[in-house]
Amino acid sequence: MSTNLYRCKNQVLFIAIFLLLVVAVLISICIGKYPISTGEIWDIVMGKPIDPLTRNVFLTLRLPRTLMALLAGYGLSVAGSVYQTIFKNPLASPDIVGVSSGASMGAAFAIVFLNGGTAAIAFSAFAGGVLTVLFLLGLVGISNNKSIATYVLSGIVINAFTQAVIMILKFFADPERQLASIEFWTMGSFGGITDDKIKAIIPFYLVGLLGLIVLRWQITLLSLSDDEGKTLGVRVQYLRCGVLLCATLVVASTISITGLISFVGLIAPHIGRLLLQRNNFKTTVFSGLVGAFILVAADCLARSISSSEIPISIMTSMIGAPFLAYLMSRGKRLS
Amino acid sequence: MEQKLLNVNHLSVSYGNHSVLRDVGFSLGCGEFAALLGLNGSGKTTLLRTICGLKKADSGGCFAAMKDIFRAHEKQRAHLISYIPQRHSIVYDISVTDVVLMGFNGRLRFYQQPGKEQIQRAFSTMEKLGIYTLRAESFLRLSEGQKQLVILARSMVQDTPVMLLDEPDSALDFVNRHKVLFKIREIIHEDGRCGLITLHDPNFALQYCDRLLLLSEGNICGEVNVKSNASDIKNNLSKIYGRIELLKYKGGYAMVKG
Fold this sequence. Notes:
The complex is a heterodimer.
Chain A: H1 3-30, H2 38-45, H3 52-86, H4 99-113, H5 118-142, H6 148-172, H7 175-185, H8 195-214, H9 216-221, H10 226-231, H11 236-258, H12 264-276, H13 281-302, H14 312-329
Helix pairs in contact in A: 1-3, 1-13, 3-8, 3-11, 3-12, 3-13, 4-5, 4-6, 4-7, 4-11, 5-6, 5-11, 8-11, 12-13, 12-14, 13-14
Chain B: E1 6-15, E2 18-28, E3 33-37, H1 44-51, E4 59-64, E5 67-68, H2 74-80, E6 81-84, H3 96-101, H4 116-128, H5 144-157, E7 162-166, H6 174-191, E8 194-198, H7 202-208, E9 211-216, E10 219-225, H8 230-241, E11 244-249, E12 252-257
Parallel strand pairs in B: 3-8, 3-9, 6-7, 7-8
Antiparallel strand pairs in B: 1-2, 1-4, 4-5, 9-10, 11-12
Helix pairs in contact in B: 4-5, 5-6
């Protein structure tokens, strides 16, 4: 394919996903138990006088919720793309280094022992996710062999351990309230998002994302084998730790207030690679936009297809799986 | 002492209790292209991996452009030695240009990206190797011969005094083998670098290299200049290949099984 044609196709894809995202965001702001029309959104943005109830719904419910779905989709997919690149494995996801199971453990701990206040759960989940990854880096650090296989093995060890702790917490949890809370947390939801929660996590999220942007060229180089990278002057050990920590900050800060969101971090990078047919930082950014679109759309469905809200992970899996199957059936390579 | 680009002194390497290299020493000068010949398991790859710092040596030293390789970290080593592995490890679709640009990594800080000037240099290197038209392709979709030229371009832009090549021809057909080896020799002679290459076929070594280093059971058992006389070359080559005959052909030699 000629360079120009390739560039042109890329631009079209970027514009398309951007437009889709804008439409999804508008729909997400409009729909819900108390609908807002696009005209009313325009009035609010332009600062015109408007019904205070509408204004309140817009500012305290819809905007934070939509913004968080956007941030979560973008962050999880960018992190997923980075994990898949540096683990040289198209099936890698945040679970591989234990950040999801660590965050679940933290959340379960807060639900059982700290009375399950929302702030306590968020803080405990964030701490659980980050500490688990730090523990993993420590495990790799004391091992003689610092190859990628050691990271995967350490991840398995840590996942098994945290799952055991979660089971203990579930076993002793009060089945009526606590056990249900733990289960719901692991299915994820944007229902309880407020602007205060977003303000609390955004610094960590941005630091992680900025780190990944700064290290973007090195991340491409980390997709080579350790030996090949080293002979090209990549300081593999330091960089891998740095990249993992940045990705962990993004994921942990996101899921600490949304609960676990399955599948989007795995599938969005696949869609990105399938469409752009490259794996570089542009693909990572594109995957982020795809993920943001998926989550905003999934959240719209989650709160509109039945009278009670459906957990977001159900929606992401229901939308993501058929889409991946469709792209697969078109006969393109997956990695 | 004449300035040498690569000095390897009394190198011993082992995997666990199994000793692979014993007291290996040699040096290469400016513009010298040497072949490392030996049978399977003689320690060729281990020697190359040790020289470029991927494998720790038990004893001995290795100096590239007078700098101690074993005391340098990855970034510093990347300024001195480039290495073409037997198999590249690229698993994702990366554009050919990006693969070549990876060669500049040793000169970039961790937060930097290759700049305009470096992209230009990558393009001109690719032009030199006749792969400029592939620049926007995905590396994975190239033929093995094209891939090897791309990796060679990456090694060239790394711009190191010492180039190590581990059987760069193993996946290539007869015509591409000649093409790639011809290019490698040209670069090393023109730029005044030094190159150490492992090859399975001694005939390619006889045709393209200046000197042959013969490795047997972890030891350099012979060393011969390809311009030397026939009996000298034959005696040395027979140390590892057994009964052989040397045929004179177009001012060079060709080896056949005797």
